[in-house]
Amino acid sequence: MADKPLILITNDDSISAKGIASLVNAMSKLGEILVVAPDKPQSGMGHAITIHSPLRLMKSNQFQNIQSYTCSGTPVDCVKLAIYEILKRRPDLLVSGINHGSNASTNVLYSGTMSAAIEGAIEGIPSIGFSLLDHDADADFDAASEYAHTIAKGVLANKLQSGVCLNVNIPKGKKSELKGMKICRQGRAFWEDSFDKRKDPSGGDYYWLTGKFEATDKGEDTDMWALEHKFVSVVPTQFDMTAHHLISQLNEWNF
Amino acid sequence: MADKPLILITNDDSISAKGIASLVNAMSKLGEILVVAPDKPQSGMGHAITIHSPLRLMKSNQFQNIQSYTCSGTPVDCVKLAIYEILKRRPDLLVSGINHGSNASTNVLYSGTMSAAIEGAIEGIPSIGFSLLDHDADADFDAASEYAHTIAKGVLANKLQSGVCLNVNIPKGKKSELKGMKICRQGRAFWEDSFDKRKDPSGGDYYWLTGKFEATDKGEDTDMWALEHKFVSVVPTQFDMTAHHLISQLNEWNF
Q1: Were A173 and a residue from A64, A74, A79, A177 both cysteine, which residue would form a disulfide, CB within 3.0 to 4.6 Å?
Q2: ipTM entry
Q3: Total tally of structural domains belonging to chain A
Q4: Measured between beta carbons, which residues in chain A are less than 8 angstroms from residue B247?
């Protein structure tokens, strides 16, 4: 057992989501598994951590013969609790997802799924976030799950460079409809937001965040292009956010 | 009035924090100001957005003669509400802070202050996050506030490249004790977390996240080095998280 890779699994759609069940299934042949996942949906939580309130951690029976816990906090809290409170040794791999919905392009920043993988990378653990381009709670995860298995196996065999994780997005559809994998860069896009303003029963205003995703990048090397053309997109993602190319330019500014 | 730059101000310590009052004061000579800030502390919220519950937006009287609102959500929610719900024209500058505590190095990822600035950059607005290395609610913001004024003036005059914002951290101390500004890269570090496990009155376990910040990077071009040597650190920060240097390497992997 000690020779089997130790795989930490989390997500942001909560331990009850179909996506994490598919991921547990895909990983079960690759190693020993620990699941630590949020006890409720935590989509859009980005890299949030819980510091103003305490956290709860509960043993779960969600998966047969697999050690699992729920956490009251964010996906990043789950990773921290798993590494520093539950596990006795470092995981060989961290996988997050499979998310119900895309985390391609700029969505990587808002995504709890990807933030969990980025936290893994900060901790020096080879990490991958998986997302399926289908928000449906009952989405078909068959193809996504096959790709997750293949890519996780590849990362275990090849080792990822320290400081980097993978952002993997899988188009909707049967395996036979997909064209394979493509290593990409993060496409440029933004949310053209709009707020759905409503009145509560007492006449007070409240707002629901909605929006339209606007791609501003037509590059054929982007994840957006790959997904539109039915490729699985794989973006090497780093947590060094320095715009290195601007350091010399800023040194010439007159402040 | 129409010629004056429009400056959007937010933070993550809430509208009542001393740091945002210092920032409002520092910006008041530079343009017309709108403040949209959280109604309660939102530290460590990273790039979280509120999608599972609605948002409240309230007019505030926090600052004399300055239009201000509180929002029930995260710092990124504040930016989105300001741009898409309140303002009639695009801001010329977004400033966030002044944060009570460091957002240097890897902290940029957890920081609500910096996520607000990064959201500004995604929206194409020149944006800066300011943080003072002092967690005290009554910290001395005099030097930080002077630097905020100087740097904001510089950004308004020079224009920042699209896709990039500035992460500015200011050491604790009087202006005369500081050695000036240094353009830096984000230093590598991680939180060696630990959880303070306690029993609630019913005997249930709960956990407080604590930790020790561990620098793994001794580079003299990092923000950590600059701050330790009493320089104000300025890191050009981008939201493209692609590890571009790894794209060709991953193309050679056998999946």
Answers
A1: A177
A2: 0.95
A3: 1
A4: 183-185, 236
Residue A205 lies in a domain: no
Residue B70 distance to chain A (closest CA, Å): 13
Q: What is the DSSP string of B73-128?
A: S-HHHHHHHIIIII-SS--SEEEEEEEES---TTHHHH-HHHHHHHHHHHTT--EE
Q: Find the largest Cα–Cα distance for chain B.
A: 63
User: Identity (one letter) of the amino acid at B230?
Assistant: K
Q: Are strands A181-183 and B189-199 parallel, antiparallel or unpaired?
A: unpaired
Q: Structure tokens of A94?
A: 């961290």
A156 lies in some domain: yes
C-alpha angle A33-A36-A42 in degrees, rounded to nearest 5: 140
The pTM is what? 0.96
What distances in angstroms separate CA A26 from CA A21, A36, A141, A145, A176, one per listed residue?
A: 9, 16, 10, 6, 18
B77 touching A (Cβ < 8 Å) = yes
Cβ-proximal residues to B252 (8 Å cutoff; 6+ apart), any chain: none
Confirm or reject contact between B210 and chain A (CB < 8 A): no
Q: Are B79 and B119 in contact (CB under 8 A)?
A: yes
Residue B19 belongs to some domain of the structure: yes
Which tens digit of pLDDT belongs to each residue from A122-148? 999 999 999 999 999 999 999 999 999
Specify the CATH number for the domain of residue B169: 3.40.1210.10
Per-residue pLDDT of A87-102, as tens digits, reads: 999 999 999 999 999 9
Domain that holds residue B60: 6-186+219-251
A144 contacts: CB under 8 Å, gap ≥ 6 = A19, A22, A98, A130, A132, A170
DSSP A185: B
The dihedral sign for the CA sequence A171, A15, A237, A183 = negative
